[in-house]
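Thread: sanity check for a docking pose with zinc ion

Original post by kr_44:
Hi all, I'm comparing my docking run against an independent structure prediction. Below are the sequence and the ligand SMILES. Could someone generate the full complex and paste the structure tokens? I mainly care about where the ligand ends up relative to the chain.
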Amino acid sequence: MSRTVLAAVMPAPRVPVEIREFRAPDLAPASALLRTARSEVCGTDVHLWHGRLSGVPYPIIPGHVTTGTLDAVRGSIADVDGRPLVEGDRIAFFDVHRTCGRCRACTVNRAPTKCPSRKVYGITDSAADGLFGGWAQHVYLEPGVVLAKLPDAVSFEAYIGGGCGLLTAVHIVERAELELGHTVVVQGAGAVGLSTAALARYAGAGRVIVIGGPADRLALALEMGADATIPLDGTTPESRRARVLELTDGQGADVVIEAAGSARAFEEGVLLARDGGAYVIAGHYTNVGDSRINAHEHINRKHLEIRGCWGSEVRHFLRALDALARYGREVPWARIGARTYGLGEINDALAAAESLAIPKALVDPWR
Ligand SMILES: [Zn+2]
Ligand SMILES: [Zn+2]
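Reply from moderator J.T.:
Ran it for you. Here is the predicted complex with zinc ion included:
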């Protein structure tokens, strides 16, 4: 194969993204070439552009969650159940790859998202190594990457509208250990918070309250399945807490989920949980500074359980696909991807994501 592939490359933090030509790779046995249909620009890409993630091998082709059609396959490839995948199939792939399954994190601590061999398309793979990011017309699916057929009912736009935020939300709901009727407060109305509101309902939550902004995102949160929203605009931490208590019969939430990425949100969240409740921290993907916590007042005396949530595993990817297939008629995932950009417009898309003008920008590299 000698055709050229266009890709948007982030040369270094704070440097404009530029379009470069790559040669289509020679396929190793049991690998494939994806023809990209949609990728995304999410909060992580803004962090990458700000240089706030460690261990990123710039230059990179960003775009971690990506979907499309199998363009070329060498040898045989299959999904996790051994069902063969062939050229022309609409597929999604798990962006995390090379998790070793043999190290201490993988085997003893059972925390494979902390495996030191782990790589992530669009984040920790370098453009020098090839087409390992979704802001490109084609993506190289190396041997061992977890692949899945996109369910017929799931459009490319719905899959990427959910995207990485939906995978994170599946993990959050698992960490939240929700029980039937639980009241849940979600801090943050970005892509993660919106998908979490939707999934919490299906996981048994009796009442879901989303705190965030701006107003159009809170309106979307209600359509995604939230029962009530509390705007950040025009309220104070005290008035928001009073509203949460009002909505939870004076108890506070059984589970609070932090999907805001703010040190102030953490300080507020511990006070929104009921005594003996749980708090899942998912939004602190980068270091946003210290929070002021009084261990006696906020954790010990409250008997509060605090759980981190880092990265995703294969089961979150596959359950995200199930959720899209099963609930996609009721939950407007495609609407999270508010606008679609071509490769030449990526810097505009990054600016829109940076200013929080839209929850998520979609990328169509063939536009
Ligand atoms: Zn490992
Ligand atoms: Zn993402």
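DSSP finds ten helices and 19 strands in the chain. Hope that helps with the comparison, let us know if your pose agrees.
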